[in-house]
Amino acid sequence: MARRFYYGGQAVIEGVMMRGRRVITTAVRRSDGEIVVDIQSLPTISNTRARRIPLVRGIVVLIESMVLGIKSLLYSANVSVNEEGEEISGVAAGGMVAASVAVAVGAFAIAPLFLTRLLDVYISSAVVFNIIEGLIRMGLFIAYLGVLAKLPSMKRVFSYHGAEHKAVNAYEAGVPLEVAAAREYNKAHTRCGTSFLFVVMIIAIIALSLVGHPSIGYMVLWRIILVPVIAGISYEVTQFGARHIEHGFIRALLAPGLWLQKLTTREPDDSQLEVSLAALKKAIEVDQLEEPA
């Protein structure tokens, strides 16, 4: 029996990107009201054995998601204002991903470390140090999301984020992929990137506590080295939780991540749901057409 495939994606400018088995589809509503759906083949790395190896696959998925996400964002920005634009190359997208990772590591890994070091004289335990650092990291992350949620330009993106979740929730519930049906579903989803990042912060506290309390140079180095390890473990935890969400204990563990999605999703209107469903339906259509007989 074929293994179940989990569709998912992200919000873009005036649209939604969905990842299928073989393609990504990006649906965008142009300024004239028309919905345009772009179909792109997945990169080679998406179909390699690495995509199926536990722990390793989380790193592959993270890199893949960031590259595809940036390309889809730039595409949607052009289409939403009725401009074609130039397709961004994989190298350029990779450069943007590297820059994004560097900024994220600096802001949410290195900065909390130095802020916690200000309290070092009062802390005698490596575990306590890492818990405090983790709480500071979490505080910075929540504050960052809170600021984004207030920006007028981000409010529509977060509405499309909610539309993406509703479409996927409706599909996984087995209901018709229509606006009226999808509207009734939750705008939160257990496999959301926001929940994943919350898990990352929890796993980081545990992993960094094992490192102990070396010199500041080694502490910075470990926080960089352990990024892929923490990401790989966090992916497995998130996927396991999503598959067993019906259990009360698992739901309780995932609850904080679902709560954080209140900051990154807004209730979509019907026109936004229509765009999200268009992206999902096209991804499913392509997958069904290319399935072997």
Notes on the protein architecture:
This protein has 293 residues and is an alpha+beta fold. It has one domain (8-290). It is 64% helix and 8% strand. Strands 1-2-3-4 form a four-stranded antiparallel β-sheet, with helices on both faces. Strand 1 (8-12) and strand 2 (15-19) form a beta hairpin. Helix 2 runs antiparallel to helix 7 (216-225) and helix 4 (152-173) crosses helix 10 (270-290). The longest helix has 28 residues, at 90-117. The mean pLDDT is 87.
Brief account:
This protein has helices at 56-79, 90-117, 126-150, 152-173, 179-182, 193-211, 216-225, 227-243, 248-264, 270-290, and strands spanning 8-12, 15-19, 23-29, 35-41.
> How many angstroms does the end-to-end distance come to?
14 Å
- Report the count of strand segments: 4
- Outline, from the CA principal axes? globular
Low-confidence stretches: none
Average pLDDT, all residues: 87
Specify the oligomeric state.
single chain
Order of helices and strands: EEEEHHHHHHHHHH
Main sheet record: 4 strands, antiparallel
Roughly how many Å is the radius of gyration? 20 Å
Taken as a percent bin, the fraction of beta residues is 5-15%
User: Structural class of the helices, strands and pairings?
Assistant: alpha+beta
Strand order of the largest sheet: 1-2-3-4
Tell me roughly what share of residues is in helical segments.
55-70%
What is the number of domains? 1
Number of helices: 10
